[in-house]
Design brief:
Length: 174
């Protein structure tokens, strides 16, 4: 169910982003940031290749958080708190306007709710897709590789920040 929710949210946010192509605050607003100017310029250049609306990170966070409610109410509440925190952080650093993360969060939550309703009704189709890995691995593995590569490249900064924080908490150099 979570896979379906995340995939659905990612596809919808990408389609809307390509259709709207709205700029990010860090490229338009004069922001005061506590990093070196050269590094900030590199970041701005790296973030201006794709639209800000809606936030696909917020969609991912909220799809996972709402999906966690199917597993455990407590996990869902913790997930919603983390999703809100990460989404607010993206606004705070200038990656998104508040409306970007609100729209992304709504898309992600809606995708999770839809996946929860659709998953029991689509088990034959989902089983058939999973069965393709047994019957046609030469097709499925390259497709999954390309999707995973796109996904990881899109979320690489988040992963880097998470691992840097983990290493810092463990007393290790990042």
């Amino acid at each position: 169910m979570l896979s379906l929710a995340v995939a659905g949210a990612f596809i919808v946010t990408r389609l809307v982003s390509f259709a709207t192509d709205l700029p990010r605050p860090l490229g338009r607003e004069h922001l005061l940031v506590p990093i070196e100017a050269a590094r900030w310029d590199d970041l701005v250049r790296g973030m201006t290749g794709f639209g800000a609306f809606p936030s696909d990170h917020a969609a991912l966070f909220f799809a996972l958080a709402v999906g966690l409610f199917a597993w455990s109410r407590a996990a869902g509440i913790v997930g919603l708190g983390a999703a809100a925190l990460f989404s607010l952080a993206r606004v705070a650093v200038g990656f998104h306007y508040p409306v970007d993360v609100l729209a992304g969060g709504a898309i992600g939550a809606s995708a999770a709710a839809a996946a929860r309703v659709l998953t029991p009704r689509c088990t034959r189709v989902l089983d058939a897709v999973v069965g393709l890995f047994d019957h046609s691995p030469q097709v499925m593995y390259p497709v999954v590789f390309v999707v995973a590569l796109d996904f990881t490249q899109h979320f690489r900064m988040l992963a880097g920040a998470v691992f840097a924080t983990i290493f810092k908490l463990m007393g290790m150099a990042a």
